[in-house]
Amino acid sequence: MSKVTLKQVSELITKGTTPSSVGCEFIDNGINFIKSESISDSKHLNGLIYEHIDKITDEKLKRSRLKEGDLLFSIAGAYLGKIGIVQNTDVPANTNQAVGIVRLNKELVDVDYVYYYFSQQHINAYINKLSCQSSQPNLNLELLGKLEFECIDITTQQKISSILSALDSKIELNNRINVELESMAKTLYDYWFVQFDFPDKNGKPYKTNGGKMVFDYELKRNIPVGWDVKNLSKITSVSNESVNPMDSADKEFKHYSIPEFDKSGTYIIEKGSEIRSNKFTIKDTDVLVSKLNPWFNRVIYSTDDDNLISSTEFVVWRTKNTAMKNYMYMIARDATFISYCTQSATGTSNSHKRVNPIVMMKYQIVYNEIIAELFGKTLGSTIKMYAKNQIENNILAKIRDWLLPMLMNGQVKVN
Fold this sequence. Notes:
This protein has helices spanning 111-119, 121-131, 141-146, 154-193, 258-264, 322-332, 335-344, 357-360, 369-379, 382-408, and strands at residues 3-5, 10-15, 31-34, 55-56, 71-74, 83-85, 93-95, 99-104, 148-150, 213-216, 221-224, 228-231, 237-239, 242-243, 252-256, 268-271, 279-281, 286-290, 299-301, 308-310, 314-318, 346-349, 352-354, 364-367. With 415 residues, it is α+β, with helices and mostly antiparallel strands. The chain folds into two domains: 3-151, Alpha-Beta Complex (Adenine-n6-DNA-methyltransferase TaqI, Chain A, domain 2), CATH 3.90.220; 179-383, DNA methylase specificity domains (Adenine-n6-DNA-methyltransferase TaqI, Chain A, domain 2), CATH 3.90.220. Strands 14-17-20-15-16 form a five-stranded mixed β-sheet. It has a four-stranded antiparallel β-sheet with strand order 2-8-5-6. A four-stranded antiparallel β-sheet has the order 13-21-18-19. Residues 47-52 have low confidence and may be disordered.
């Protein structure tokens, strides 16, 4: 193996330009404007799948015009050290000054291989250490160009990157599936419980087809005849069943914690000896709703695995069956419920506010048990698939992260 610098194998190393510095304004129709926050923990630029993407005119910022295959480094601010690759679906696009553009010579190096090399944790830590030369951490172009990596023969590079890319592709596929699953579930929930176009006795949309409505003075709105206004506490129970994992020190628990949810969206497997406080026990009909900073809407659809436990930062909604579990999950994800919990949260610190579980369960909804269960049955295994995809992604990411350094240092050989 021999080390080379990025500058030695690149056709271009430059950075973007801030639109305002050249009199550029965002417009409704134009080319994508990629900011540093578009670069996350995926080689795909996740910012480009968000609903709102800033656009700029095609004539501006020619110097930072991106091409498919460009390697992007976030070189300033909170996202420093993050790396992404421009895909063909991203262009035409430009980027800002917080992003360094490295246009690799593809006859010498494989772009994916270089991406994975610099994605290693110890390499990322080194980049961040290099940047700490001022009050505002940044990595200038000279330092960026001097970054070294192991330049093995390009065929081996491609074999290594293909293994890692296969794992990432499956993760990306699961993510795309989950986006569609959640969109479908939200649309169905909106039709049935916001617009009240649930199926009537003839299978037709209730309100659209003249279903009778009555004014409710408590909610100050029209609701379907025969429906009730109920607090959540009247629809589902809250479980406080707990366990001390330290009592079973060698037992492996599947632990839903706030940090792990924020990282992977699912549980982490830990031995009882590693868990220092009492936790709630979780069943397969539970929905977990975080009381901490409720605006982040941390909601977990529990799996049917054994030995599930959760942080006491969650409120455990214990439903009576899967159909009601599906229904309650969608309530917890509804914007009105999130707003209610956010406004009800209290605390001395803006970063650590909590909604009292008793207050949470006073949230009122327009309710009909028959329609609620029918909705849950109609949704079927949609949300369960969503949760299973998150667990699979977590496993795949761990395999990738385990393989990555060993492939890079030659501990694991590729044929």
